[in-house]
Amino acid sequence: MKRSIESPAGLKISDFEDKSLLIVDDDDPFRDRLSRAMEKKGFQVNSAKTVENAIKMVKSKTPQFAVVDLRLEDGNGLEVIQHINTSKKDSRVVMLTGYGNLPTAVAAVKSGAIDYMAKPVDADDVESALLAPKESKAKPPDNPMSADRVKWEHIHRVFELCNRNVSETARRLKMHRRTLQRILSKRSPQ
Question: Could you tell me the pTM of the whole model?
Answer without folding.
Answer: 0.68
